[in-house]
Amino acid sequence: MSAAPTSPPTIPPTSPPIPSKSWTVKVRERGVEALPPERLLPDGQPTYVASWIYVFGVASIASLIVIIGSGCILALKGPAWWHETGVGHFFNSIHMWSVELFFFAMVVHLWGKYWMAAWRGGRGRVWVTGAITFLVAVPCALTGYVSQQNFDAQWISTQAKDAMNSVGVGAFFNLTNFGQMYSYHILLLPIAVVALVSVHVLLVRRNGVVPPFELEDKLS
Amino acid sequence: MSLQGAAIAGAVFNLNHPAHTVDWSFIHLSVANVVVIGLMLIVFVAAIALPFPGATKRDAARRGGGGS
Question: What are residue B29's DSSP bridge partners?
Fold first, then answer.
């Protein structure tokens, strides 16, 4: 018995889209409005962006990428590897020196933006996110120093705990607790630093780079 | 050679001594940190003072109506 031939399913005519008020649509519309693609990834920048100060901002981000990459390898292999093998010493050193470079470049960038008064023109949040990134990166580095699993870590933790106790946070942030410090160092604080850097860069894209004083006077 | 001896021999600088420090009133800094702070100041001044490669050319092109 053969089946009766069937006609292909008909596609219903398209109807005009119904305005949606779902949260996904709202987030998308607000995102595109705040950061249209041509502003998020622009073709060019004003001529005053050609300054060494911004090279140090980019160097900070590059260092952060190396920090996270080398940190992931150290986390995978563990303390015995980073203390007792040649390759472990290499990645341990890469991690430490990229942190040094990160702070060096970030401080030079921060000084430059301070003297350029980078908060002008409604860019307060750009400045604040950058400054807070520096403040959050300091305990991120401190928790790394006390997570080394060596005498240096013991010395630093027993010295620095007094500072924490003196301001009343020692009960919640115990520098001699390796598990707590390691969790802060490889999870909580890196997430905070990366989130702050991401918001900082997006705000720079949204508000544009602050113009020099003279140019701002001419424009106003 | 012991592990400690190998580590010292491998270091460019002999670190097997207490840190040298700079003391000025209540300020107490290791020489290593003073060197880093000094380098940051030098690099900061250089970053402000030194012209960025191609900046003049880009500025001239913009004033002349050329591409940025």
Answer: B22
B42 to chain A: which residues are within 8 Å by CB? Answer: none
Considering the domain architecture, whether residues A120 and A180 belong to the same structural domain is answered as yes
A90, A144: one domain: no
Q: Do residue A100 and residue A149 come from a single domain?
A: no
Tell me the pLDDT tens digit for each residue of A36-82.
Answer: 988 888 888 888 888 999 999 999 999 999 999 999 999 999 999 99
User: Which residues sit opposite B21 in a β-bridge?
Assistant: B30
Residue type for position A121: G
Across the interface, of A47, A51, A108, the residue whose CB is closest to B68 is A47
List the domain range (segments joined by +) for residue A86: 51-105
pTM of the predicted model, to two decimals? 0.82
The answer to whether the Cβ–Cβ distance between A104 and B36 falls below 8 Å is: yes
- CA angle A142/B38/A193 to nearest 5° reads 30
In order of A1, A11, A130, A168, the CA distances from A6 in angstroms are 15, 15, 65, 79
Q: What 3-state class would DSSP assign to B30?
A: strand
